[in-house]
Design a protein that fits this description.
Layout: H1 3-12, H2 16-31, H3 38-45, H4 49-56, H5 59-75, H6 87-104, H7 106-113, H8 123-141, H9 149-168, H10 178-191, H11 203-212, H12 222-236
């Protein structure tokens, strides 16, 4: 086999995309976004620049793919609640892991969360949001949420991302890591209650818990479930409490 054929197979083989992502992630980690040029990635991965465009489309798509590649490794550290595990403890652990990932991978974190565009979310960030929503559903089903699932998830996202970017803006030697703990507990105090809401008063929290477990009943038709879910969502919305 001649050298030209070897190069062609190396650029079109099944491992070419993975090799490019690995090399791009290393460039991003050590040199930031400025280091992630298609020329540098092609050189590091041993491919021609057109191969990158063929596999990823453009540089923005490459950045999204690199962010997803790095974040998937982070998501592997997370798992759904195990039987008997307190969902609030799991949420604390998830916050700490999120902040730790952001501080250890500032460039990837910035690609994921640092360029918000309405209606567009990076694939990696979308996976993180889905995971967080699963956490909120567990909390709602246990009767521990005092706000809607969506508002709880948004407060966690705002607090976690804000904490990471605030700490990254500080000189590394001067970072106040306790800030993350204080912010975490402030957010948790806003969205959760220590007593399951069906043991306490509050129609809003009861609606949140019922809506989270509505799919478990067979007593309603699909259209009835959708209608009841809409009513419960209206009760659970801010200002939905009735006297």
């Amino acid at each position: 086999m001649d050298q030209a054929n070897t190069v062609e197979e190396g650029e079109n083989g099944p491992d070419a995309r993975q090799r490019i992502l690995v090399c791009a992630a290393e460039l991003l980690r050590h040199g930031g976004r400025e280091a992630l040029t298609t020329r540098a990635v092609a050189t590091a991965a041993g491919v021609q620049q057109p191969t990158i465009y063929r596999l990823f489309g453009d540089k923005d798509a490459l950045l999204d793919a690199v962010a997803e590649y790095g974040f998937l490794a982070y998501l592997k550290q997370k798992s759904p609640n195990e039987p008997g595990q307190d969902p609030i403890d799991a949420l604390r652990a998830g916050w700490d892991l999120h902040v730790g990932f952001g501080l250890a991978n500032p460039a990837i974190f910035s690609i994921m969360y640092g360029d918000p565009r309405p209606g567009k979310t990076s694939p990696a960030a979308a996976k993180a949001v889905d995971f967080l929503r699963q956490r909120m559903r567990l909390l709602a089903a246990s009767g521990r949420l005092r706000v809607s699932e969506e508002r709880a998830a948004n407060l966690i996202r705002a607090g976690g991302c804000g904490t990471v970017f605030t700490l990254l803006a500080m000189p590394e030697a001067e970072r106040d890591l306790d800030l993350s703990i204080v912010a975490r507990e402030a957010v948790l105090a806003t969205i959760i209650t220590q007593t399951p809401q069906w043991k306490a008063s509050g129609v809003v929290s009861a609606a949140i818990a019922l809506r989270a477990t509505l799919s478990e009943t067979n007593a309603l038709t699909a259209s009835e479930q959708r209608l009841l879910s809409e009513w419960l969502a209206r009760i659970a919305a801010p200002g939905g409490e009735v006297s």
